[in-house]
Write a structure and sequence with these properties.
9 strands; alpha/beta
């Protein structure tokens, strides 16, 4: 399969076959890394990493993956880039596209990464926007396949606020690949209706399904995967916390909720997670609201069912596959 020159902006743009190809390529590259077999097939190439939102996993994943492939990286944080400030996105795309072989963008509106792709002559990769998080989805899928040996027909239940990038992207992934996607959340936290309708059409074609349920135990029933994310997204004001805690506390992933899923079910989280008091935000929430844990209990997070660190590692392997494929490293 030849994906050379393709942008990677959302899984909506990719067929099921292309998605599986990328995950299978990631598995091969992961095996080579574990065996210390070099894959530096893109020596002499360079990529730009634009981070309007900072990150641990995404930055490390792109930098290590690029270095493994033999490429150089230039990191542009919010203070180092003039994108959208002194220089338009279109002009930035044309300047960086003339110097680099690929551009990663992690930031706010999806329209920004779409505009970068429109005006750049090199592949553009979405490291996260408000609406979509496609590289995370490949890591999640690789983890599911590693644990169960398959994916089709599996049920993935997302608990919490499903209106943004993670919930949106999981719904796209599951509906395209014949998986059963459920959401446990109050109705006002359900995904966008237009996207849901689009995904229902894909699910009907693939043999999957979509269920939006305000009853957390019903949503989690017989799930293979229970998935959650932080209750307040990056860039949202602090005062949102009180409302989210009030609305979403019944949807926290606890041992009791995991018991509603299949006995062999796993827990996934795209991280960072507020499962203890080991973070500044966690301590702040504890002081204001008296809570020691939020979207997931420490008991579940540290349990054998939790595969969050395997999932986090897989970010690097799947990002490596995306860059290698779209830069033509393994084009047939």
């Amino acid at each position: 399969m030849n994906l050379k020159g393709r942008d990677f902006l959302t899984l909506k743009d990719y067929t099921p076959e292309e998605i599986i190809y990328l995950v299978e390529l990631a598995a091969k590259l992961k095996k080579k890394k574990k065996e210390s077999i070099p894959v530096d097939v893109l020596r002499g190439r360079n990529i730009a990493l634009i981070f309007e939102k900072t990150s641990t996993r995404t930055r490390c994943s792109f930098e290590i993956a690029a270095h493994d492939l033999g490429m150089g990286t230039t990191y542009l944080d919010p203070s180092a880039s003039q994108i959208g400030k002194k220089e338009s996105i279109a002009d930035t795309a044309r300047v960086l596209g003339s110097m680099f072989d690929g551009i990663e963008y992690r930031g706010y509106g999806q329209e920004k990464v779409e505009e970068l792709a429109k005006y750049s002559d090199v592949p553009v990769w979405n490291g996260l926007t408000n609406e979509y998080h496609p590289t995370q989805m490949l890591a999640d899928l690789l983890t599911i396949i590693e644990v169960f040996g398959d994916y089709k027909g599996r049920k993935l239940c997302y608990m919490g606020d499903a209106r943004y990038n993670t919930g949106d992207s999981l719904m796209v992934l599951c509906s395209k690949l014949g998986m059963h996607f459920s959401v446990g959340a109050p109705e006002k936290y359900f995904p966008d209706k237009a996207l849901t309708d689009e995904c229902r059409a894909w699910a009907e074609a693939s043999g999957g399904s979509i269920d939006l349920n305000p009853d957390p135990k019903a949503a989690a029933k017989d799930a293979d995967v229970i998935y959650t994310d932080v209750w307040v997204s990056m860039g949202e004001p602090d005062e949102i916390w009180e409302e989210r805690i009030r609305d979403l506390k019944p949807y926290a992933v606890t041992k009791e909720l995991m018991a509603c899923a299949k006995p062999e079910a796993i827990f996934l989280h795209c991280l960072p997670a507020f499962h203890d008091l080991g973070t500044g935000i966690g301590m702040s929430i504890h002081e204001k609201f008296g809570l020691d844990e939020l979207e997931v209990t420490d008991e579940v997070f540290e349990s054998p069912q939790s595969k969050v660190f395997q999932e986090a590692e897989n970010r690097m392997h799947t990002i490596k596959a995306v860059m290698a494929a779209t830069l033509g490293a393994f084009a047939d």
